[in-house]
Amino acid sequence: MFKIARKKVLSSTVQLMEISAPLVASSAKSGQFVVLRLNERGERFPLTIASTDKEKGLITIVFQIAGKSTLQLSTLPEGGVILDVLGPLGKYTDLTGVKNAVVVGGGVGIAEIYPEVKELVHEGARVRTIIGARNKDLLFFAEELESAGSELFIATDDGSAGRKGFVTEILKELLDSDKSIDLVLAVGPVVMMKVVSNLTKPYGVKTLVSVNPIMLDATGMCGACRVTVGGKVKFGCVDGPSFDGHQVDFDELMKRLGQFKELEGLSKQKYIDSLKCEKCRE
Amino acid sequence: MPLIRKKTEMKKQEPLARAKNFNEVALGYSEEEALLEASRCLQCKKPFCVEGCPVNINIPAFIKLISEKKYDAAVKKIKETNGLPAVCGRVCPQEEQCELKCIVGKKNEPVGIGRLERFAADRERESGSIEKNAQELSKEKIARVAVVGSGPAGLACAGDLALLGYEVTIYESLHATGGVLRYGIPEFRLPKEILDIEVNYLKQLGVSLELNVLIGKTITVPGLFKLGYKAVFIGTGAGLPSFLGVPGENLTGVYSANEYLSRINLMQAYKFPETDTPVNIGKIVAVVGAGNVAMDAARVSLRLGAEKVYIVYRRGEEEMPARKEEIENAGEEGVIFHLLTAPLEIIGDPATGKVRALKLIKNKLGEPDASGRKRPEPVPGSEYTLEVDTVVSAIGQSPNPLVPQSMPELKTAKHGNIVTDENTGETSVPGVFAGGDISTGAATVIAAMGAGKKAAVSIDKYIKKSL
Ligand SMILES: Cc1cc2nc3c(=O)[nH]c(=O)nc-3n(C[C@H](O)[C@H](O)[C@H](O)COP(=O)(O)OP(=O)(O)OC[C@H]3O[C@@H](n4cnc5c(N)ncnc54)[C@H](O)[C@@H]3O)c2cc1C
Ligand SMILES: Cc1cc2nc3c(=O)[nH]c(=O)nc-3n(C[C@H](O)[C@H](O)[C@H](O)COP(=O)(O)OP(=O)(O)OC[C@H]3O[C@@H](n4cnc5c(N)ncnc54)[C@H](O)[C@@H]3O)c2cc1C
Ligand code: SF4
Ligand code: SF4
Ligand code: FES
C-alpha cells in the first residue's frame, strides 16, 4: 500500500500527487517512471516520476485524466492509498555533456520534462523550455520550470497565454537563430513529438523523445510496449522510454496506442455510470 | 491382486463444456480411484521412479501411505522434498520424468504418480489440515537471505531456507507471487487458489514477501547485501519473449504469449469489464509454436470466444514439445493444427494497422539439427494464406536480462543465462546463487524447484562457513 501524501489539482484535467514510496524515491533518476495499480481489479499503468524527495521518501506524479484508470486515480483523496507502485522503471536519460538544450513539453508532458530540465541546469547547460497547451487553463508548472533555471517560452492554441500557435513555431525560431543548440528534448503527445523530430532533422540537432506505448508489466516481460526505432524492435519499458526522435516510427506507435480504444471507452463509460449511480443513491 | 494394465482414468470436464469455461479441466481422483491406482505400485526395493523425479520424492513410501489411507502422512512424506505437490501433481511432465522410469510402465501403463501426488495434496487442502501440518520453527534465525523472484525456483529455495532456520525475504517485481504459475499457466490447468494456499504455507514458515520490487532497478543485488542479507538467490526466470522475426510483427493483434497470457491470467482480462485490463481476442486466432505455452494460449482463446483457433508449428506431430496430455486436450476442445508449417509474414490492414491474415509456407523434415530434431525445410511453392485477426507468438522465452544487466560482474552465457554450478547454484559472484529458468533457459516447474532446493543447501553451507 502506497499513501497519497499530497494532492493538487493543476487544471480541469491534470492533477499532481505526492506518493509515499521510499524505495522508489531513493533510486529514481530523471526520465524514469512508475507503474501503478489502484486496486485488485485495476490495470497496471505507467506515469513518469516528475520529481522525488528522497529524504521524505516521496515521488511526485502528474497525470492527465484520459480513461478509467486516470479518472479513478483523480477521485482518490489526499491520505488515500494506491495498492501497487513499482519503480523506478526504464533507463534514465543520460544528459551529461549537453551545453545548450531546448526542452519542449506539450500537455501533460510539461510535468514530465521537469526532472530533465533540472538535471540539464545542474549539468551546466543553457536550457530553454517551450511549453504548450490548448489554452491557459491547461498550463501548469511554469513557475517550477522557471525557478529550476530555464528560460521559458509559452504557446497556446488559442493565444490565451504566451504566443498563439504551436510549440514548434517557437522551436523553429530558436533553431534558426542559434546554431549551437546541441539537444532538443521533447515530451508530449505523439503527434507533437513527431512534428518536433521532423523539424529538427534537417538541422541535424540530436533529438530525444519519450515514447508512451501501452504497457503491461513494464519490466521487459511481455513486449506490449514494442516500438520500432531505427528499423529495430525495442521495448519501450526497458530500452526506453527515451529514444532518438529521428529513428522512432511514430505512425506505428500511434496505431499501437489505439489498440484497445473501444474496450477502454467501454471501461471508462461503465465507471462513469457507476459514479453517477453512487451520486443518485446519496 | 490381479494386475491392472491401465492407469486409473482421471475424470475430466467434457470437451465442449470445458472449452467455454475457466474451471479446471482435470477433476482429480476420488478416494476409491486413488486407492485403486495406489494398489498398482509394486513397492520396488530399488524404485527407478525416484531417480526420474528431479526432487527425488520418496514415491513408493508416499504411495504406500495412501494405500493405508494415511493421507496426511503421505503429504508429509512428499513435502519432505517438494513444497508444492498440488502444483507439481498437475503440471509436471510426469510422462518424461517419474512415470517414464516406473517399472510397471515397461509392459503396461506406468503408475499414475502425478495423479496420486495431486490427490494427496488436494485432500490435505480440502480437509484444511495444511495449517495444522505447518511445522513450528525456532524464532532464533541463523542469518537473513534474499530470494529474487517468486516463481517455483524462488518459492522452493525460500521454503527450504526457512526450514533450515533462515530469515527469508522474497522480492518479486510483479504485484503477485508465483511467476509463470500465476501469469502463464491458466486457471483451467492450475487453479490460482491452489497456488495461493501453497504460498500461504510459506508465509506460515515465516517467509516474508515484498511485492513490487524490481531487483536491478528498485534495489540492486549489491544493495541487498548492504541491507544485511548474507546471501542472495536469483530465480528471475525466462521472461524475455521472442518474436517471429517476420514482417508485420508489430501490427495490432499480434501478441507475445507472455502478453496474451498475462493479460488473461495475471490481470484477469477474461472478466473484463469487471476488471480493467482489456484483451482483444478476435474471431480467428493463430498461435505459432507447439509447446505448453502455445497450447495454453490456444485453449485460452477458445474459452474467450474465438470461433477458430489454429496452432501453427514448423515441425511435425512427434516433435511438438508440449505435454502429450495437453496436446490431446487442445485437440478435443477443437484447436486445429497446421503442422510442418512456418509463418512468412503477418499481413495487416495498412490504414488501421490491424492483423488481417497470416502468410504461411509448408515445411518438410530434413537432416537432424543441433538439437537432434529433424530440421524443417521450406517446400518451394507451397505458400498459402490463412485469414486471422489475432496472432500469438509462442516460440520461446529467453532469460530475463534485468539482473545481469545491472551487475556486469555476474557471468552469463550466450543466451543471457546466468552461469551457475549445476550442483550448487553458485554464480561467479560470491554469495550470489541462481537457479531455474534464469540459468537453464525455459524448462519445467519441477526442474526450477529442484534448482532452488539445491541452492538452499549450498547457501546454508556458504553462510555457516562464513559465520
Ligand atoms: C513511460 C510512460 C510514461 C507516462 N507518463 C505519464 C505521465 O507522467 N502523465 C500522464 O498523464 N500520462 C503518462 N503516460 C500515459 C499514461 O500511462 C496513460 O495516459 C494512461 O495509461 C491511460 O490510462 P487510462 O486507463 O486512464 O486510459 P485508457 O483507457 O487506457 O486510455 C484512454 C485514451 O488514452 C490513450 N492512451 C492509452 N494509453 C496511452 C499512453 N500510454 N499514452 C498516451 N495515450 C494513451 C488511448 O488510446 C485512449 O484513447 C505515460 C505513459 C508511458 C508509457
Ligand atoms: C504458459 C506456460 C506454460 C507452462 N506449462 C508448464 C507445464 O505444464 N509444466 C511444467 O513443468 N512447466 C511449464 N512451464 C514452464 C515453467 O513454468 C517454468 O519452467 C518455471 O515456471 C520456471 O520457474 P522459475 O522460478 O525459474 O521462473 P518463473 O516462474 O519465470 O518466475 C520468475 C519470477 O521472478 C520475477 N522476476 C523477474 N525478474 C525480477 C527482478 N529483477 N526482480 C524481482 N523479481 C523478478 C518474475 O516476475 C517471476 O515472478 C510453462 C511455462 C509457461 C510460460
Ligand atoms: S514432482 Fe513431478 S516428477 Fe516428482 S514425483 Fe511428482 S510428478 Fe513426478
Ligand atoms: S517404479 Fe513404479 S512400481 Fe516401482 S515403486 Fe516406483 S511407482 Fe511403484
Ligand atoms: S511493458 Fe511488458 S515488456 Fe514492456
What key phrases describe this protein's structure?
heterodimer, A: about 280 residues, alpha/beta, Elongation Factor Tu (Ef-tu), domain 3, Rossmann fold, 2 domains, 7-stranded mixed sheet, 5-stranded antiparallel sheet, 10 helices, B: about 475 residues, 5-stranded parallel sheet, 19 helices, 16 strands, about 15% strand, globular, binds flavin-adenine dinucleotide, binds iron/sulfur cluster, binds FE2/S2 (inorganic) cluster
Ranges of chain B with pLDDT <50 over ≥5 residues?
Answer: none
Tally of individual helices of chain B: 19
- In CATH, the architecture of the largest domain in chain A is 3-Layer(aba) Sandwich
Distance between the termini of chain B: 56 Å
Structural class of the helix and strand makeup of chain B?
alpha/beta
Count of helical stretches of chain A: 10
CATH superfamily of the largest domain in chain A: Nucleotide-binding domain of ferredoxin-NADP reductase (FNR) module
> Which radius of gyration of chain A do the C-alpha atoms yield?
19 Å
Largest sheet of chain B: 5 strands, parallel
Average pLDDT metric of chain B: 93
Considering DSSP H and I runs of 4 or more, what fraction of the residues of chain A is helical? 25-40%
| Rg measurement of chain B, Å | 23 Å
Which ions, cofactors or small ligands are bound in this entry? flavin-adenine dinucleotide, iron/sulfur cluster, FE2/S2 (inorganic) cluster
Strand order, sheet with most strands of chain B: 3-2-1-4-16
Number of strands of chain A: 17
Quaternary state of the chains:
heterodimer
Distance between the termini of chain A: 29 Å
Query: Strands of the largest sheet of chain A, in order across it?
Result: 12-11-10-9-13-14-17
- How big a fraction of the residues of chain A is strand? 25-35%
